[in-house]
Amino acid sequence: MAGSSEIIFDKLVYSCAFEKYQGHEEFIPEHFLGFQLSGETHAFHAQGNVVVTENKIVLVRKNQLIRTIKYPSKIGKYQFISITLDKETLQQYAIENKIVVEKRYDGKQKMFFEPNDFLLNYFISLTPYLNKQKEATPRLADLKIREAIELLLQCNPDFKSILFDFSEPYKIDLEEFMNQNYMFNVPVESFAKLTGRSLSGFKRDFTKIFGTTPKHWLREKRLDEAHYRIKHKKQKPADIYLDLGFENLSHFYFSFKQKFGVTTSEIK
Q1: Of all helices (H) and strands (E), which one includes residue 240?
Q2: In sequence order, what are the residues at sequence separation of 6 or more whose Cβ sits closer than 8 angstroms to the Cβ of residue 159?
């Protein structure tokens, strides 16, 4: 088994793998809190790379594109728990606790942090649900999510401006964003949302900037980058096609030959 994920209760997901497993690109629509039980998660995003090691906690902000590679531990097992901090729950929590965020979070990307004893014990308290020793009722599941919010705020009060910012993504520089994120193989709808645009607005602005459609531009951009890496960095197609947003190697070979008129092995 390469990798599997299991929903323990509505917003708690347990991932397990017994060999190296490269996940697909993911659009993260909601904040989530995760804990690396064993093994490592290598996460790649627009701002760089992060390695989440064993016993580390990660708070991943919503509206991001992330690609992961999962590495089992020395004993041969990868385990990761993630609990979604969804908008509805956070909004209700904010109302009940009279929390108002006046301005957006403007700090640097923070992917993980050292857990305190309370957060460590919180994730330990979830293990009976993973091995099915205990079943979570909807009410108990809601309480566990609220407990996670409380502990996060206790750990770092600055997380308030991340968790309780309910404003819609504002329009950002589309050209800069696409040049940083073209390698993520996600629907155009996700690119539109991440740049603060409707789908029609995204396509309209895209055509004005790049003079072509998103689909055509993405294909050409990925192939140009592939050509550069193969010719100048001597990288192998099998090692880079996934990183550049292609779903399978045969499709990559076909597209490459179609664009450049030669196979990857014929490049000098």
Answers
A1: helix 237-240
A2: 59, 152, 153
* 15-50 confidence digits (pLDDT tens): 887 787 776 678 888 999 999 999 999 988 877 788
Topology, domain 4-163: Jelly Rolls (2.60.120)
On the 0-12 / 13-18 / 19+ scale of CB atoms within 10 A, 59 is buried
Phi, then psi, of 257 in degrees rounded to 5: -65, -35
Number of Cα atoms under 13 Å in the Cβ half of residue 258: 9
Q: Give helix 138-155 / helix 87-96 axis angle, nearest 10°.
A: 70
Domain ranges of the chain: 4-163, 174-266
Beta bridge partners of 83: 12, 33
The CATH number given to 174-266 is 1.10.10.60
